[in-house]
Amino acid sequence: MNRTRLMIIGVLALGLGAFVSFTVYRTLQTRTASSSEAGVDVVVAASDIPIGAKIDNKDVKVVKFPAANIPQGAPSRLSQVLGRGVVLAITKGEFVLPYKLAAENAGSGLPGLIPPGMRAVSVRVNEVVAVAGFVIPGTRVDVLLTGAPGGNSEQQTTTVLKNVAVIAAGQRLERNSAGEPQMAPVITLLVSPDDAQKLTLASTEGHIQLALRNPLDTKQDDLASVKTGALYRTLVAPDNAPAAKPRLKRVTVAAPPPPSVYTIEMIRGTKKEEQKF
Q1: How far apart are CA 217 and CA 220, in angstroms?
Q2: Which of 25, 28, 212, 245 is 20 to 30 A (C-alpha) from 252?
Q3: Cα dihedral value 220, 223, 225, 230, nearest 10
Q4: Percentage of the chain exceeding pLDDT 70
């Protein structure tokens, strides 16, 4: 009886051991399959890469990521990104995506930041024109011009360009990490070729002022020019006001002097008559 019981216990132990072994085997097989899925190469930043920099070997590295976690179009080889300029800042550990890089052979620095069909034009500014230094790379501005067109003596201000991107302040292509103002004597704007002509002409015609915009405010209203006379309040009679009635003056007329009377005495026989003339 004891022998039979021992045999039953032995069989149960063997069965339990087989079940545990099978479970461990399936778990290890699943983990192996998962690790094989994580073997897709992708290029990431090895350090922070600022705007305008040219990517070097020390700036990037190749790591393995699960295919499901890799953005579409992410480069998998260093040769795809080396030597290209950076148009958007890349932080350490971030994927080096194509839209953050300049086109191949476009170079680095400011030229690499200019998209095809656009131009970079600089204007001279001071602390007031640059909105106390808050016009920095990455912000958007309107360009206002004040002058006297056509030799007119009356000054007027008009908005020449609207919602223009700022790509450089002086020789700095990006804002500082704290977002503090940056004073620079020159601001570089990204404009179309047509707007580049307007901006260049405006800088010679009068005084330029930059108006800082909220980057989320993309509305572009058509504004009429403001003339000097609009700044001063003048009292003008309304057009529909009733015309004032003319006041009649009373004139006193002196009575004319009585006319002179001549009396003639006429005698006819015994009769005597008088006639007045």
Answers
A1: 9
A2: 245
A3: -130
A4: 78
